[in-house]
Amino acid sequence: MGGHNDTLLRDPAIEEWAWMRQNTHRYFKINRRTAPSLIGMCLVFPALTFYVAYVTQGKFIVEPKVKKAWAEAYTKKD
Questions:
Q1: 14-51 burial, b if ≥16 CB within 10 A, otherwise e?
Q2: What is the average pLDDT across 5-15?
Q3: Can you tell me the distance from the alpha carbon of 69 to that of 63, in angstroms, rounded to the nearest whole number?
Q4: What angle do CA 8, 9, 10 make, to 5 degrees?
Q5: Which residues lie below 8 Å from residue 67, measured CB to CB, with a gap of 6+?
Q6: Contact 3, 9 (CB under 8 A)
Q7: Which residues make Cβ contacts (< 8 Å) with residue 49, sequence separation at least 6?
Q8: What is the tens place of the pLDDT at every residue in 31-73?
Q9: Residue 18: per-residue pLDDT
Q10: What is the secondary structure of 5-25 as a DSSP string?
């Protein structure tokens, strides 16, 4: 079933790219080129996401247009 034979031609450039992508942890070094993206991914993006979530918390209350019967039991206020 679906044998693993080499009937397709493989592009050596794609194979090398895939191997390097799978083994990035072996060759990654922090330098001037990678530092900005590392700082952006690890510090700026999470901080910006937290800020937007904190500022907009509770501002947008989304309620369904049609209430379901099962939802009324949970939202009923006594």
A1: eeeeeeeeeeeeeeeeeeeeeeeeeeeeeeeeeeeeee
A2: 83
A3: 14
A4: 115
A5: 75
A6: no
A7: none
A8: 999 999 999 999 999 999 999 999 998 888 777 666 666 666 6
A9: 94
A10: ---S---HHHHHHHHHHHTHH
What is the DSSP code string of the chain? -------S---HHHHHHHHHHHTHHHH----TTTHHHHHIIIIIHHHHHHHHHHHTTTT-----SS--HHHHHHH---
**Over 90: is that where the pLDDT of 16 sits?**
yes
Q: List Cβ<8 Å contacts ≥24 apart for 57-65.
A: none
Q: At 17, which amino acid appears?
A: W
pLDDT exceeds 70 at position 76: no
